[in-house]
Amino acid sequence: MGIQGYSAAERLERLPISGYHRIIFIIIALAFFFDSMDLAMMTFLLGSIKTEFGLSTAQAGLLASSSFFGMVVGASLSGMLADRFGRKPVFQWSIVLWGVASYLCSTAQTVEMLTLFRILLGIGMGMEFPIAQSMLSELIPAKGRGRYIALMDGFWPLGFVAAGVLSYFLLPVIGWRDIFLVLAVPAVFVLAIRFFIPESPRWLEQAGKHDAADKVLLGIEQKVRESLGRADLPEPVALPRVATVPGTFFSAFQQLWSTQYRQRTMMIWSVWFFALLGFYGLTSWLSALLQQSGFAVTQSVYYTVIISLGGIPGFLMAAWLVERWGRKPVCIVTLLGGGVMAFLYGQSAVFGGNVGLLITSGLLMQFFLFGMWAVLYTYTPELYPTSARATGSGFASAVGRVGSLLGPLVTGLVFPITGQGGVFALGALCFAVAALVVWVFGMETKGKTLEELTQI
């Protein structure tokens, strides 16, 4: 409780959305963008790396999956660390780790060292993603929370496209090692500006650090006043009070499986697993499957980038709809829409690789699937209390990364048996299962403060 007698949530929720909130959003979204570029870059550099080291297909696949393995570890640990020691320090160390790891990738002289450095890079990225969700959800008032988190996720397809453009222009000139070096540079800039992001007052209050929470809140309120150009702020409105939970490293994880949150945990873990199993099982093979259908390598890369552009209007539409329709219906629609379009995309081979059908269905598939990503990143942190929010987001992401590890492997096993049509039908089935889970077990969170959601 702050010195003014109001809780951190009551003081934060009454603030109008201001330029200060948008600055916080831009800083966090930039980190998300550069992380996404690092993750996506392997899609475009793998061919050059495979040639230099003389890798087999299996070895190249292992290297491509190494970052996802790291992300499982990073996402699992970072949530518990952030719920125990605070959002800001874990947030900052994640950027240090992926920046250093990207630099180390540029120095790798063997595939074993490169794999190790990609695992370290994945740990840093795995740490960053769930903390970004938690911080943004705790700093942005409920009236704009869904829109801003969904927009943050939209920097993922932008990062993918930027990685493709960067590799297209730089790969022939400087090679894959120097591209990794270039990607390490933004880490210095992002780390510096992250010092402008405050620790979450909600977390400070939950941890019993009331004086520190009040100090941060006074700073936030002053910056909002300056941003709005006025001295007065709306009066706080009473919100449900959440009991402080004694903090130990494993207490947050235990909370995920308490009577109140068990169903939410099982629901969101299932959705993340099946959604990412389908997503990465398809997208990691998009270019290769195009080549299997008879397209030249240059054509397949070109079409893959074009198809990915569909994700940009997809996340923008999702960011608009989550505050109008709600999280649950948008999640179901994007999953089902992605499944239908994935099935149609897979049938393009049946029609002789018809380019019109392929591009149209591919664009719509990415439109729905990146919309799905935006909803998932919005929905997940809203399901848990401050004492377990980062842990809940981290483990949901980690379970999803297990699905992303298995996706390319399952696709590689299914493709020789069923062909392209069977692969995309399997992906469509994964999205349908995830949609069914949300429909049956999901709860709506639109328009409610994080504290109100703990009372449901």
Explain the overall architecture.
This protein has 456 residues and is an all-alpha fold. The protein has one domain: Growth Hormone, Chain: A. The protein is built from 18 helices and no strands. α2 (19-53) packs antiparallel against α3 (57-85), α2 (19-53) packs antiparallel against α5 and α13 (297-308) crosses α16. It starts with 7 loop residues before the first helix and ends with a helix.
Q: What's the overall geometry?
A: globular
How many domain modules? 1
Which percent band covers the strand fraction?
under 5%
CATH architecture descriptor name = Up-down Bundle
Structural class by SSE content: mainly alpha
Instruction: Assign the CATH superfamily.
Output: MFS general substrate transporter like domains
Please state the CA-atom Rg, rounded to the nearest Å.
Answer: 22 Å
- From N to C, what is the helix and strand string? HHHHHHHHHHHHHHHHHH
How does the major sheet shape up?
none
Q: What is the strand tally?
A: 0
- Helix amount, in percent? over 70%
The end-to-end span amounts to 23 Å
Mean pLDDT figure: 85
Number of helices: 18
